[in-house]
Amino acid sequence: MDKNSNGGVKAECNKKAIEYLQSIDFKALGRTVFTDHLATVSEAGKNIGELTVSVSETVRGDEICYYVHAQSHGVLDGVPMGTSVTAYITRGVVTLEQTQHEYIKFTNKPLDKKTIVVKEGDKLRVKKITSAGRDVSENELTYTLNHEKGFVSEGANIILQRIMCQRNDVPENAKFLALDNASCLTTMRYAKLPERTTTIADSTLALFGIEREVLGMESLTVRWNTHFLEGGYMATRETIGSSVRMQLIQLPTKDGQPKKGEKSVSARNDLHWEADMQMTSHYIERKEKLINDHKTYVRHKPELRALLEDFCQFVLLRKPDDVCSFASDYFASFSTKIKPPTLPSNAEEKQRLNP
């Protein structure tokens, strides 16, 4: 049993959950390195957005870990909305750090919520920043985890469900720890769903289903049903009670393999592009060194790609007149020295540019 810091409500994890997480080593984590691409479909069957979930190996400090980036966005009833999760996960599916960003762009009062989770020893520090229009509130919570390895964050859940599918094993009597929508520590359970099939691109495929339940402490209990293809690729995901669902449209392809109808392109050989062989040799050597250095840096910093993707998505949704000013405000929110400003609306930008 683990006691939270805001009033004595208890969340429960058990030995079976802890043992299951401890059985997951780096080899098992390595098998979860791939990307899911799903469409967001409305109740009427209309495509209204997309979901991308990726896991990649990285280094955080001096520690090898796995970087999870999940991003969904779409437009429902004319209102842009989305969620992004970035997390660093290590052996035992332990969360070192996670940032979750949710937004709903209402015309009059846009809602924006960011939740940052950081593991510090046996403590879990949670910081919430919520913006509703121009109103900004901040809240910090600290939880002492007697069984820290029983905690599963949103990012860790992505890896954990992929491993359950690959093992064909759901620990149904295990009780894990998680955070509910109010960031209160609570109990989470998994259960295996009945077997079913789906048809994608004229192929009938068997699906492995998992139900995830997060009990509500200060919010409603939430359940998700997720079905996977062989290997852990996500096929469908839905929140029980929601009018939208995530659905795989096209079968995934292995990394590095060309898609159907796509021809592979051979690399150009520029060894003799100059008559001066000494200059050519120096150019090629320098070029390869820079390319390798850049690739190594980007590979070890997957958050760079995630950050740029989130920013570009935000720009396209807001379509600001002054992109430079918008970028300045957006990236200022990542500074630890200043308070994040409220991003201006398009109307406010026009008024500022044309007084």
From TrEMBL:
Keywords: Cell membrane, Cilium biogenesis/degradation, Cytoplasm, Cytoskeleton, Membrane, Nucleus
InterPro entries: CATIP_N, DD_CATIP
Gene3D superfamilies reported for this sequence: cAMP-dependent protein kinase regulatory subunit, dimerization-anchoring domain
UniProt-listed Pfam families: CATIP_N
Ciliogenesis-associated TTC17-interacting protein N-terminal domain location: 16-242
GO biological process: actin filament polymerization; cilium organization
Annotated localization: Cell membrane; Cytoplasm, Cytoskeleton; Nucleus
Keyword Nucleus belongs to the record: yes
Keyword Cytoplasm included in the entry's annotation: yes
GO CC terms: cytoskeleton; nucleus; plasma membrane
Family per similarity comment: Belongs to the CATIP family.
Task performed by this protein: Plays a role in primary ciliogenesis by modulating actin polymerization.
Stated name of the protein: Ciliogenesis-associated TTC17-interacting protein
Native source organism of the sequence: Clytia hemisphaerica
